[in-house]
Amino acid sequence: MVSSNVLLDSIQIEIGGDNEWPNDAKLFQPYETEQILMPDSANCLAVQAFLQMANLKYETVYKANAAEMSPTGRVPFIKVGQYLVAELEPIVAFVQNKNISLTSNLTDAEKSDMRAYMSLINTVFGNAENYITWCDPETYSKVTKKRFGSIHPFPLNHILVWKKRSATIERMKALGGKTEQEAVLDDVDLCCQSLSDRLGDREFFFKSGPTELDALVFGHIFTIITTPLPNNQLNGIVRGFPNLIEHCKRIDKMFFKTNFSSEWT
Hints:
Pfam families: GST_C_6 (PF17171), Tom37 (PF10568)
Largest sheet: 4 strands, mixed
Family: Belongs to the metaxin family.
Protein name: Metaxin-2
Helix content: 55-70%
Number of helices: 11
Strand content: 5-15%
Order of helices and strands: HEHEHEEHHHHHHHH
Distance between the termini: 42 Å
Subcellular location: Mitochondrion outer membrane
Domain Metaxin glutathione S-transferase: 190-251
């Protein structure tokens, strides 16, 4: 499996002067209705939002084995010409190599702040979404097992979901992620407070307009708000920050043209 950093280095070396964004770019992800889980849904939405903000055409392709097709084993990934690029930050770098950027008007200090917030979000929200999906007993038994196993025949579905759960928990621990609910939720609350303070009453996190930070926040907030789960404590925490909810609504309306449903109320 190729790491994101190795892939990114390869892209930067190879792409050279090929600066055209094709009309047949594709984004690959798992099926939304019956398969995708909260962590993957957040990541896929973040990439979709970034591509929409950058006004880049793409077709979403749903594949049951999207993760196995990905160069890093993570979703989503895009196929642009001969290149396969997975996950938000490598995709942002790939797009920037085509002289397309959402951050060209930011100062170096603002770019540094943006990267710090994105790292915080990936750590805190990523860990929390994995915790709820794989560690919360009720969510795991009623939602995760069914959705993850939906594409596999019996008994393979049970074997693979057990292996995935074990691997995810080990990865969470290796990355220093917390695996006790109270600590996980406390981190989310602190992260939301930090984001809420940074956003204030602005439309986006930076005055120049939406950036990949806005796309990343949208991906996580939208997913948490609209994913029905037995354990809805993440939802409750996020709803305590009205400006983050309004930010999410704004991006949804501007870039996805969605009519707000009861999930927002």
